[in-house]
Amino acid sequence: xxxxxxxxxxxxxxxxxxxxxxxxxxxxxxxxxxxxxxxxxxxxxxxxxxxxxxxxxxxxxxxxxxxxxxxxxxxxxxxxxxxxxxxxxxxxxxxxxxxxxxxxxxxxxxxxxxxxxxxxxxxxxxxxxx
Length: 130
Prior knowledge:
Layout: H1 2-9, E1 15-20, H2 26-34, E2 35-43, H3 56-61, E3 65-68, H4 74-86, E4 93-98, H5 102-111, E5 117-121, H6 123-129
Parallel strand pairs: 1-2, 2-3, 4-5
């Protein structure tokens, strides 16, 4: 019930825009719960795979725009980096795992209980390789 919790945490008002890179069943959660009427769902990846189905009924009843996109140009990437630096945007990190315990991070991801990025610390590997 992450979608309802997200909306509640954000003040109880559905979102106007969702930018999603995971796909999977989360797309339907966005359509059904997270996005409000006239919302836009921008989809650029599928780390969670394809959804079993897509709730097209709610898609059109809520007049949601579904937009697929790619990563963009080099100039757009530079603009994004400048924006992130200017606004001091820091992604939420769930855990930092040494590369030597990579299997642990994959187990965490498979369990699906994390909230935030799973960071792999390469310093043990790079120190060993140097």
